[in-house]
Amino acid sequence: MTASNIAESAAAGGDDASWRERAVERSLRSARARAVSRSDRFLQAAAELLNETGRTDFTVQELVERAHLSLRSFYQHFASKDELLLALFEEAIGTYVARVREKVARHDDPVEQLRTYVFDLYATAETTGSDGQLLSRALTVFHLRLAGTNPPDVARALEPQVELACEIIEAGKAAGRFRDDLEPRQLAALLSQMLIGVGHMNVLGTHVTGFQIGPDELFAFCLAGVSPPPAG
Fold first, then answer.
1. What is the pLDDT of residues 14-24, one digit of tens each?
2. By the 8 A CB rule, do 138 and 55 touch?
3. What is the DSSP track for the chain?
4. What are the residue ranges spanned by the domains of the chain?
5. CATH 3.10.350.10 at 80-226, yes or no
6. CATH homologous superfamily for 17-78?
7. Which residues touch 110 (CB under 8 Å, ≥6 apart)?
């Protein structure tokens, strides 16, 4: 085939154009990889700033300088600083849930699964003196602010955590260990809201009752809440 024939075939876009699809796919894979890499660098830079200051009032310019990327690149990946903080929040929730899910899977008893879920969430929120204290505090403050301005975003970010609680409750209900007068999704929502509230108090140090609630008391309360009501 001559150069002229090849040019004509390419212009016609005939049956021999499968190479086009491969070339485009290869190009898209490369572009996706670059985009993910840069997004991760922005997230890492944001986590470092939050962990150093415990505040979310850093500027986008400070962020791009820390990430060694451009302002233009930032706005190609995120519409605003809040969108980046939401992504960081979602990553934190996803990492936590993946870790807890692995631990929960080690138990067949739904009560032990619930205990693992409650104790691990409590331990995650108990950050006093740890390296992640300021980061956790900053993300908690962001969570509370976002809950007031954009509840759907918060609900979407917390969905993996609520879904895991729902799976545990469904297993307990199927085994006859947990109550069946409420839908598992309702119980999971109530359970998650309470645990998140306790987590916020631990991170921020705002114990409204004057004393800190420990994991044993918290689990006892959660277990009572999902257990079948007394007969009669």
1. 555 675 676 66
2. yes
3. --HHHHHHHHHHT-TTTHHHHHHHHHHHHHHHHHHHHHHHHHHHHHHHHHHHHS-S---HHHHHHHHT--HHHHHHH-SSHHHHHHHHHHHHHHHHHHHHHHHHTT-SSHHHHHHHHHHHHHHHH--TTSTTHHHHHHHHHHHHHHHHH-HHHHHHHHHHHHHHHHHHHHHHHHTT-S--SS-HHHHHHHHHHHHHHHHHHHHHT--TTSSPPPHHHHHHHHHHHHSPPPP-
4. 17-78, 80-226
5. no
6. Homeodomain-like (1.10.10.60)
7. 168, 169, 171, 172, 175, 177, 178
Residue recorded with tokens 């979310």: 56
| pTM, 2 dp | 0.77
pLDDT in tens, 47-99: 999 988 888 999 999 999 999 999 999 998 899 999 999 999 999 899 989 99
Mean pLDDT of 93-114: 94
CA distance 69 to 106: 43
Q: How many residues does the chain have?
A: 232
Q: How many CB atoms lie within 10 A of CB 99?
A: 12
